């Protein structure tokens, strides 16, 4: 359990630090080789091929990523996960005190987001190494018993059972890294023979391919095709390798003398050969997968329905609990509309097409209608029948609806106007300025998802994180403004030409994010996590007089 927790801890730290940039990196690849390298790198960073597969599926579902590039990313992620096992299989116990000291200090003593998450990552790596040492120590007395050798000998003889056990182990643990590290550790200490470990590892490769298939089972068909294709390729290669090794390789070559490092090498070779063999067919497999998993044709009445109906009916308020649930559903719908307006804003800066601008402004009209509906619904609530807490929640939701409507106005009345102005002048941002805007845009999109989670769950930790992210966006806006001024001082022509638009966009982004993050404020106030004022109280008289 410590191993699973530690792997998740590292992944969480990396996602919170760099998760907003994943979309740009993953969706900007056209070459299959480049896509596989991106998948490899991301799996090394996230320490999970399943996480890479889930991100890929999400982008494929939204139409941002094609099938071929997505499958290449997932296959590269499988190899990246194997490289992580190679790194963690080394004897690195001497690093544990150093990682804990530095990581703990960064996590506890620093407020900057990336430094704090770096502390989380370093502590997670230390916990992985500690858990592996615990595993080796726990297996020592079992190794000397009569039970484990009997099981180990049976698994060595019955390679099919060992294969199935490895697949089940990886699926149940939901982490191929943790499952294979366990198998490598058992071989290293001599608890199981190399032959049994090899069958377990091949099975773990199959089981790990089932994980993203299971986790995407509720997503749209386009999102599920890539994990299914990966399962077919990975599963077929695992089965072929299992029978080829156990039937064609002499038994004495799979016997003693091979340690955990040889097992890691075998795992690396399996994933490297799979990537080399499958990469040329990534685009070719799109047609067969579409035939096997066709997208369901929408019903006629669904095709005609352009927008979902409101969840609120002022004439039928229902109980306070039902009313609050209806308000949450409507706020989520409103948040989705605002996100749909904000997501393409940077594309407008490139194209500036009037039709796209008008489409976004049309959505703003619907956002305004949502606010009107929420205002009417809250006004119709029977205040006499509601508790003080429920009435307060309803007022907080109305306040957040106002903030969402204002966020929509930021897009419709400020950002689209700036995009139109940029199109008229034909000017372009500097490379550095455009990169800064992209990073802020990605961060805010991630914050919108977090805000929706806070709205649904009322989770205090998520609310704290969202409030911290608001501070990070303000810091990013301030830093970008300073860098922009430095570029002006150096005489960069593009920065001069787009200075007004750049600064106005930064300010609009900051304001938009503040409105979105306002959902966290009531939760933090109720738990005493926010101060009423940031001013210093009771300033000494001598200081004020000076």
UniProtKB/TrEMBL annotation:
NCBIfam families: Na_Pi_symport. GO terms for biological process: sodium-dependent phosphate transport. It is a multi-pass membrane protein. One of its GO terms (molecular function) is sodium:phosphate symporter activity. Keywords: Cell membrane, Membrane, Transmembrane, Transmembrane helix. InterPro entries: Na/Pi_transpt (IPR003841), PhoU-like_sf (IPR038078). It comes from the Bacteria. SUPFAM superfamilies: PhoU-like. The keyword Membrane applies. It is found in: Cell membrane. The keyword Cell membrane applies. Its main location: membrane. The chain crosses the membrane at residues 63-88, 94-109, 121-139, 159-187, 194-215, 235-255, 262-281. The lineage of its organism: Bacteria, Pseudomonadati, Pseudomonadota, Alphaproteobacteria, Rhodobacterales. This is Na+/Pi-cotransporter. GO terms for cellular component: plasma membrane. It comes from Falsiruegeria litorea R37.
């Amino acid at each position: 359990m410590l191993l699973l927790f530690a792997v998740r801890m590292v992944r969480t730290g990396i996602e919170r630090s760099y998760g907003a940039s994943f979309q740009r990196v993953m969706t900007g690849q056209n070459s299959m080789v480049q896509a596989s390298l991106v998948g490899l790198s991301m799996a090394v960073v996230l320490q999970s091929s399943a996480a890479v597969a889930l991100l890929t599926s999400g982008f494929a579902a939204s139409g941002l990523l094609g099938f071929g590039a997505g499958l290449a990313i997932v296959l590269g992620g499988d190899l990246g996960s194997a490289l992580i096992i190679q790194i963690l299989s080394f004897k690195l116990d001497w690093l544990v005190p150093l990682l804990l000291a530095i990581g703990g200090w960064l996590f506890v003593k620093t407020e900057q987001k990336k430094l704090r998450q770096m502390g989380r990552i370093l502590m997670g790596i230390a916990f992985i190494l500690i858990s592996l040492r615990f595993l080796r120590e726990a297996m020592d007395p079992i190794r000397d018993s009569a039970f484990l050798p009997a099981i180990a000998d049976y698994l060595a003889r019955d390679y099919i059972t060992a294969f199935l056990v490895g697949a089940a182990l990886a699926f149940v643990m939901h982490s191929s890294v943790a499952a294979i590290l366990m198998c490598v550790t058992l071989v290293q200490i001599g608890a199981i023979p190399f032959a049994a470990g090899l069958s377990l590892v091949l099975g773990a490769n199959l089981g790990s391919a089932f994980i993203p298939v299971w986790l995407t089972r509720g997503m749209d068909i386009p999102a599920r095709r890539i994990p299914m294709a990966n399962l077919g390729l990975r599963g077929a290669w695992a089965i072929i390798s299992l029978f080829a090794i156990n039937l064609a390789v002499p038994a004495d070559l799979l016997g003693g003398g091979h340690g955990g490092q040889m097992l890691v090498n075998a795992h690396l070779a399996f994933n490297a050969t799979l990537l080399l063999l499958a990469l040329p067919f990534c685009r070719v497999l799109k047609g067969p997968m579409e035939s096997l998993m066709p997208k369901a044709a929408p019903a006629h009445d669904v095709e005609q329905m352009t927008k979902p109906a409101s969840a609120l009916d002022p004439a039928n308020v229902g109980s306070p609990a039902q009313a609050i649930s209806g308000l949450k559903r409507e706020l989520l719908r409103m948040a989705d509309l605002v996100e749909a307006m904000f997501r393409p804003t940077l594309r407008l800066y490139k194209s500036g097409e009037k039709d796209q601008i008008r489409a976004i402004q049309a959505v703003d009209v619907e956002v305004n209608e949502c606010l009107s509906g929420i205002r009417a619904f809250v006004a119709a609530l029977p205040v006499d029948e509601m508790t003080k807490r429920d009435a307060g929640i309803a007022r907080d939701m109305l306040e957040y609806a106002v903030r969402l409507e204002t966020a929509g106005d930021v897009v419709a009345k400020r950002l689209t106007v700036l995009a139109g102005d940029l199109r008229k002048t034909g000017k372009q941002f500097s490379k550095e300025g455009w990169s800064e805007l992209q990073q802020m845009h990605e961060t805010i999109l991630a914050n919108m998802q977090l805000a929706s989670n806070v709205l649904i769950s009322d989770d205090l930790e998520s609310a704290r994180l969202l409030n911290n992210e608001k501070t990070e966006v303000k810091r990013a806006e301030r830093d970008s403004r300073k860098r922009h001024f430095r570029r002006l001082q150096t005489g960069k022509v593009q920065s001069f030409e787009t200075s007004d638009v750049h600064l106005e966009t930064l300010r609009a982004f900051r304001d938009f994010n503040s409105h979105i993050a306002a959902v966290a404020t009531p939760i933090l106030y109720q738990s005493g996590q926010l101060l009423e004022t940031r001013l210093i109280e009771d300033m000494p008289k001598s200081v004020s007089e000076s």
